[in-house]
Amino acid sequence: MEQLSWDIESLRILHQEFDSFITCSFNAAHKVPIKSYEQHHIRCELKHHGIISESGRKRKQVPSSTFFYRKAPAVLSLDKEELQKTAAYGSANNNVGQSLTVGQRLEEYEKEMAMFNSIRAENKQQKRDEYQNFDAIWEAVQKKKGKKTLKALSENSGQKSRAELLAEQRDYKRRRKSYRAKNIRITQRTPTQIHRDLIAAYMEDFILLNEFEMELESKSLISKSNNSNNSE
């Protein structure tokens, strides 16, 4: 203590001064005496919110840009007075109804469920009436598809001349037996090609089904017209 020029009285004073310091609530590194804490608190709060810079000068206020948006239809002004007027007008014209009770909510739910069940049952009945003879219709569509395929094959085979058939036979004989084994990657189909073939097949079935249904409707209309003529 003698080498540092300290004595008991000076240490006691330093200890009292250290106890008189308060930590700033905005920056824990700031140790401020009790006397100047209030002034420091105000200054540090302004710095914390960005109102004044670190040098202590107040930031320059940016000029208002409302002049350039006076005629703009979709710009909302954020002036305090206008916001207060808007809030007062909204609270005065607030016509929001009261919240429903548990019983009212259950009643609304039961009504919606009853409506949903009735619509679902009606839809099922319509589908049942529409497709009650679907197996027979689908079998007739498949027969029609088979006839159409045979007709297309016969037309394609009939269009080829004798020279074309001989050329195909000649090309087939020229190919080696291991041609397909070596070029198997060429004959393999990608998943995209498989999906395209499936979609094309389903679309063909749907087109044939639509044609068959149109034929049935036309036949039923013709029969109805004949019956009406006979009755007259």
Automatic annotation (TrEMBL):
Respond yes or no to whether keyword Zinc is given for this record: yes
Q: Which organism is it from?
A: Diversispora eburnea
Instruction: Using the record's annotation, list all stretches that form the CHHC U11-48K-type domain.
Output: 21-48
**Which InterPro entries does UniProt cross-reference here?**
TRM13/UPF0224_CHHC_Znf_dom, UPF0224_FAM112_RNA_Proc
Q: Please indicate which superkingdom the organism of origin belongs to.
A: Eukaryota
List the keywords (alphabetical). Metal-binding, Zinc, Zinc-finger
- Which protein, by its recorded name, is this? 7023_t:CDS:1
What Gene Ontology molecular function terms does this protein carry?
zinc ion binding
